[in-house]
Specification:
Structural class: mainly alpha
Number of strands: 0
Strand content: under 5%
Mean pLDDT: 82
Number of helices: 6
Radius of gyration: 24 Å
Low-confidence stretches: 127-132
Order of helices and strands: HHHHHH
């Protein structure tokens, strides 16, 4: 493989690895939500003031669902609409190839096709020095924007994971009180200390949400302007 082809593969693998990582983290957040939801009723029962906390979490759940939907759509497009379809075409071209030059041409077409649709490069960018500067800029912008979107999603996952852990600790605290039959004098207060979204955390969430919306809008503009 030529140096340009190896570079293209490295960029592809890097982007897809980041996508898979974010997909796994958001999926983990969803599983945590399902597990934590089972305990919310019991916590509200013994600490009615905590109901406002769970209502506030609804906005977090909506954000996670929106992020997860984007990631799964992008993952489906990369893996099936691009890679699988292009691979089937490559296999057919390999079967029809009669010499090494035709094999190389088939591979170059395959690599050009997947980099064009995943990295938003021009059709002639891989294995060629004749690259349109505007196309290179758009491709770099799209890749950088996707990386920023993924990093923002990981920041959200970290915040969401912390809140889920606090909810789990509150439930464990409640279960311990019930099993040991300890007095419940300060129980609601103790539970509410764990079930609290601080102003700093809420501001952090709002920044993540705003950044997500801005980046998606910019990314959509680049995708629409792309020739494919």
């Amino acid at each position: 493989l030529s140096p340009s082809a190896m570079t293209a593969y490295l960029k592809l693998f890097n982007l897809i690895w980041r996508l898979k990582r974010v997909s796994r983290q958001l999926s983990s957040s969803w599983q945590d939500d399902m597990s934590a939801h089972k305990h919310s009723k019991s916590l509200i029962k013994y600490a009615p003031e905590s109901e406002s906390y769970f209502k506030s979490l609804h906005e977090y759940h909506l954000m996670r669902s929106e992020m997860f939907h984007f990631v799964k759509q992008l993952e489906y497009f990369f893996m099936f609409e691009v890679l699988q379809c292009s691979w089937l075409q490559l296999e057919q071209s390999m079967k029809e190839a009669k010499d090494l030059d035709q094999v190389i041409d088939a591979h170059n077409r395959y690599l050009n096709q997947i980099t064009t649709r995943i990295l938003f490069t021009s059709h002639s960018s891989v294995g060629s020095i004749d690259v349109v500067p505007d196309t290179m800029i758009r491709a770099e912008q799209a890749t950088v924007m996707l990386q920023e979107i993924f990093e923002n999603m990981l920041r959200f996952h970290k915040l969401h994971e912390y809140l889920t852990k606090c909810q789990r600790r509150a439930h464990e605290f409640l279960v311990k009180k019930i099993r040991t039959r300890e007095p419940f004098n300060n129980k609601p207060h103790d539970i509410l200390q764990l079930l609290t979204i601080t102003p700093e955390q809420q501001d952090h969430f709002l920044r993540i949400k705003q950044t997500h919306q801005v980046l998606l809008k910019r990314f959509h503009g680049v995708v629409v302007a792309h020739q494919d």
